# Entry
Amino acid sequence: MGKHVLVIEDEPNIVEAIRFILMRDGWDVSTLSDGGLAEETIKSRRPDVVILDVMLPGRSGLEILAALRADAATESLPVLMLTAKGQGRDRAEAERIGASRFMSKPFSNTEILASVRALAGV
Amino acid sequence: MVPFNILVAVCLVYVGLLFLVAFLVERRANARALPWLRSPLVYTLSLSIFCTAWTFYGAVGYAVRSGWEFMTIYLGPTLVFVGWWWVLRKLVRIGKTQRVTSIADLISSRYGKSNMLGVIVTVISVVAATPYIALQLQSVTLSFAVFASTAADGGPMPDKAATALWVAVGLALFTVLFGTRNLDSNERHLGVVTAIAVEAVVKLVALVAVGIFVVWGLAGGPADMMARIEASPLSSWDLQPGRWVGLIFLSAAAVLCLPRMFQVMVVENVDERHLATASWAFPLYLFLMCLFVLPIAVAGMDLLPPGTNPDLFVLTLPLAQGQDGLAMLAFLGGFSSATSMVIVASIALATMVSNHIVMPLWLSLRPARAVSGDVRRIVLLSRRLSIAGIVALGYAYFRLSGGSGALAAIGLISFVGAAQILPAMLGGIFWRGATRVGAVCGLLTGAGIWAYSLYLPSFGPDAVISARLMTEGPWGIGWLRPQALFGVEGMDPLIHAMFWSLVLNATAFFTGSILTFPGPVERVQGAAFVNVFDGEVSAGGWVRGAATAEDLLILSQRILGGDEALAFFEAEARMQGKAGPLPDPTPGFLGALERRLSGSVGAATAHAMIAQTVGGAAVSVEDLMAVANETAQIMEYSARLEAQSEELTRTARQLQQANEKLTRLSVQKDSFLSQVSHELRTPMTSIRAFSEILMEGDMSPEMARRHATIIHDEAIRLTRLLDDLLNLSVLENAGVQLTLGLVSLQDMIDRALVTAAQTRPERRFTIHRDPGCEALYVTTDADRLTQVFINLISNARKYCAAPEPELRIAVRQRGGRVMVDVIDNGRGIPEDSQALIFEKFARLTDETRAGGAGLGLAICREVMTALGGSIAYLPGQGGTAFRVTFPLRLQAAA
# Structure
């Protein structure tokens, strides 16, 4: 079993793409389609990297990130933020709250794979 | 019993205390440090000078003699304060705007600042008040005598005349010291008023204390008291309706016309709103004052030896029971009632005498140097002499009448005299047609009849009017007999005199007013008085005269005092926009100056003084017309300025609104672009990711097909989004080209259902329709309207989560409008979201990837607007329901 990545993203096709790319590279991928259970899922099985969308139904990715950073257990968990809005404001906000990395959609497959590897220290 | 010396000492200490109160208040008032002094409570208590010694002692005597009739004296004022407070309010407002200093000033000022009227009212008031002041002296003297007579070791007891003299001198001194300490331009005496309020409390406490002693100490409580009243001769008293109504009317008139009431009610009023409190609090005070009158009267008749003066029961009853402390309190109460009345009455009368008789005389005696010398000093001196003179008159009356007559009778005679002012006063403030001639006729007629039929006979037979004249009439003319005028016999003398004097007074007043025309000044003043609530009406009417500002300043400094006059002139100059202390002598300035001066010397005198200085002794119609023209020009100019200013304000407001709208639009545009970016990038992400995967090759054909399908779907989603955006953009910019035609509504719905079935084709909907209703031909753009139906039906197919989904399409026609409702059996839309759904990108359920971008309803709304109709959410239909409304026949835009 390889390293574990948690993908929190509501677009099913994007989730499928990310899962395909990472699994082919030997990662163990689990997914969540909304942010409601993010912390519980992370606590029950701690991933090595979290990929987190900014615009999620119900609870925004930035809120989840802030909650993770406020908790000592997940303070240093690598988090890769994704956004489709393409605005500088989101990036600045995400970095302020403590995103490990930030990527705009659409991204290239090699780019996201390289980022996940770097964050997991592989 | 109390030794005489001690009694005198107590009185002196009490007066000293009042003195101290008045002094402290005056000093603090200058520092404006006592807000409670300006409370409505002090005002209400000061009104209680209506309750004089006559009320304090005399009401009991009155009750003994005439039963319940004493109540009328309290009922009149109560009716005025409860029901007629709007008259009082008008008087107070006029008093403030016209700076009225007395009731004589009010009448004089109303009827063209006529000094003759001022003199008439002053004389009537002084004549009517003199017996009343005598009455107060008498009651104090009598109470002294009762209290001290039995004292063995009290030293020599002076006779009544000497006591009365000392009381009179003391009161005159006190009044002079506080009534004329300074010459206020507003003619208010805060210190005196507060002292009066203190006295009001003392007399109320005293009377209530005696009453409680009688009811609970002498009788066995209220029930026993009621029984005793029933058993007393008072219970057999029967009501005389004529006298009852007449006396209520009389006391009501007195409360309006007595100079001392006018003084506290109007002149000393600090704040018009205090009247509101007084309108209930003063009747309450009166009620408490009369509550125990009957018990005291009955107890006095039961317990005191026959022949005891009932007018002194309040004092003699506790004295006979050995309650010296209570008796002392009662004595102080009576003393307070008497002193407060004399003080206020003499201040009020002295102001009138000084302003309307002494000052005009002095002015006319020295015409050449009219305003030389220190007028201030002369005004003060004349006030002080007038006070002394009025108290002296009261003392003289007391000596001449020999202290005879029941207290109540004297009081009522006074009331009838004062009531003669009523027609001229009420007519003056409510009827613009009232004229000076009418007022003079009415006042002289009424006063004459009053003197002839009531006042002079009250001195007793053969004192002034011979007994023969009383019984046979002058020159033997029977219908001119003083107490049976026009042959009306058998009437109560008081009611008789009141009836004839007031009826003839009012008749003369109306006749005189109707037959004559008011002069110009009178006309202006009449308008200012009657319309006092319609805002400022220019009162004076001065033309730009020959006077220089220096002359006027010198004049004012002598009346107002150097600093105050200078400050007033500087303020006026600033208002005119001039530097330095001297304003131009414009009509407006002269008017303001006149009002200011009239506060010190009365309206007529102020008018005369300025007239002398300016040189134009009277104001002619031509002058007034000139002033009116000037005023009209100024008003027109200021109206133009006002219009311009309004225009500017309006433009500024419009600009601000436009700016706000632009800001709002800019924010909306940013948010829209951000959302468009999101909606475009999301499918783009899938397309890029899967196309890169496909580019790498090396996978099974099934996997490749699956990835290609996703790319295909997302490309279609992108296309649809772009279509929607373009569509919306065209609609919003009103660049839409409508293709109107006559089409079947049923056909449009059919088409929409077929097209919408492509959305989630796996779902089976039960469709309810009513073909009868749908059989309508509509003039509209068929493609656009069908698009709206498609969007609505597709939405239902996408979002309706019911296990057995149903869709109902209901059509109705109302006049020229058609309504189509599209209703499903889903969960509906939460209330707080209903307002949002027509906004762009307002997709409520992000979890349902329905493939839309959230533009469908926004497009529907734009389409319906273009089609002259509307779309709305219908709450409470058991599911999601939309109503589309559009005209049956859409007219092509011109």
Observations:
- DSSP finds 33 helices and seven strands in chain B.
- Strands of chain B lie at 740-744, 766-769, 777-781, 806-814, 817-824, 870-873, 881-887.
- The longest helix of chain B spans residues 621-695.
